[in-house]
Fold:
Amino acid sequence: MASSPFHSTADIKGATVLMVGAGGIGCELLKTLALSGFSDIHIIDMDTIEVSNLNRQFLFRQSHVGQSKAKVARDAVLKFRPNITITAYHANVKDPDFNVDFFKQFNVVLNGLDNLDARRHVNRLCLAADIPLVESGTTGSLYMSREKRSAMSVSLNQPRRPIPFALSQALHQRQLMLITLNLGSRYEAAGPWFVHCIVWAKDLLFAKLLGDKNQDNDLNVRSSDAASSSKNVEDVFERRRGEEIEQYGRKIFDHVFGYNIELALSNEETWKNRNRPKPIYSKDVLPKELALQNGNMDNNHASDDGLSVSAMASLGMKNPQDIWSVKENSTIFLEALKLFFTKREKEIGNLSFDKDDQLAVEFVTAAANIRAASFGIPLHNLFEAKGIAGNIVHAVATTNAAIAGLIVIEAIKVLRNDTKSYRMTYCLEHPSRNMLLMPVEPFEPNKSCYTPLSLEINTNRSKLKDLVEKIVKAKLGMNLPLIMNASSLLYEAGDVEDDMIAIYEANLEKVLAELPSPVTGGTMLTVEDYQQELKCNINIKHREEFDEEKEPDGMVLLGWTQPVPAAENKNQSVGNGASTSDATMAAAESEKDDDTGIVSPLKKRKLPDDSDISKSAVETKNHKQLQVIDDEDDLVVLEGNLDGFKKRRL
Ligand SMILES: Nc1ncnc2c1ncn2[C@@H]1O[C@H](COP(=O)(O)OP(=O)(O)OP(=O)(O)O)[C@@H](O)[C@H]1O
Ligand SMILES: [Zn+2]
Structure:
């Protein structure tokens, strides 16, 4: 490291760099920057250190848990490089303080982020400030905790035309093809059906029982069909005044694992070509008398810290890598529920799932496993379930270190204005022909990369549902059920259960129903297909009249071009690009719309948190913004058919 050919050069020493993110990549990056001779580094990270970070975010120690990542990282590096300047901001990069002027003070910006939302934001600011950005990311083999990470990318823009995100988007498009080719085997290994169980346990059951009661939830859709039942379904989930907690737990158990399954079974049509699930009632798996006599809450050392309460501890179960029997899962399920209602009662109604909340993870693991048992899906241990529920990529420190090195190499090229040498580099999990790192020339920047599609339509006459059918399905080539504004969900490509599709469709209806008609002042609609191959923001504007000859469809869609040439793209559903506004389309032909960006179909995703939503609400003022889902780990997985890739790119 000391012999780095760059370490003493003036362009490095004189540079002011901004790093965004001090996590897995960020820690490595800060260290490498400092050791490479950079002497004025600014670092933004909004997070505090968690125990789960310590295995790879090596600047952090146990004693730092709870402290600002940016500040601790700064202090750690200053210990071995005391003479450089590191400025730490414990803040969200989306804070208005980090405006264009703030960005203008840097020579280069380096991302070490884990979500698309923040990446997009940084990209926009870099574009506005005309500052080059080096983008990076890593991904694990999704939902497969056994395997190591599979790929990473480093991409960067050109200094005078700083459109880095377009590069990574272009990457996605390419990437997707490769992923598509491999879907079959990946899915078999990943066990998508268990992922469904986790989603059900986390987003439906956990949210219903412990989260916001007013939030819509599809968990009892089925039961409400049973109109003949005199029982008010809502009541099932409400704990009655004075109701024993054990009794309440069993009532929930029997309702969701027993009654609801029986109800589903009563629809013969659904099960014609499928394995029928088995209803599970608590009396079948647990002793008749209340099951919790083994539970010993004293093991929880009644601390103030709610996050340390544990059903496993209370039941004397220690190993998170044991796969529990159905009986054990049922016991944990009831015990966890009991602990929530006894030890953490104040939080009930406000809880949202957090992978660092032990009790929440235990509850979700147990519930997912019981459901899995009912459907004949193999059970998983808590460690694996936590990985899926928390979207945890089991990151590998060495890969982060390699990426950090590549980022610094690209940053140095930027500082030297060595534009010809820019590379995007993939780090391959399965080196091909002894090639671990695969550098490729960056794709052309995308000029329209942050403009959403714009749609003009008479919103009085056209029902928005038709619009979605017409525009989204025909023009954008999304022939699949659409997702809109769902809560946190995981999906996989391929078969999706009917009930999931029903949920998506109900959600779509709901979102559309909430749109104003006619649209006044403009409406932003974000649409994705459930395979997440396409995602676009559509800016809808009302227009009264259309030229029947030029605009026979009675609408104009601007900004859309086909993301990938059809010939290269057999494996995707891509629109035919035909348009009512061919002239405009042709004008835009050389551009790709970034917000129609393609992301991996395997990505985890989540809704922006409340603060994001309120912020964007403010940003759009009287515009109604329907913000959907952002991907975390906006990444690429390179597998298999590298020949095809190289032929075109190298
Ligand atoms: N909008 C944002 N503003 C500032 N920092 C951000 C923003 N979004 C993400 N980050 C930071 O980017 C870093 C991403 O790093 P990484 O994913 O390795 O860390 P982590 O999220 O703590 O780890 P893991 O995802 O494995 O739990 C995090 O430290 C996170 O706080
Ligand atoms: Zn992260």
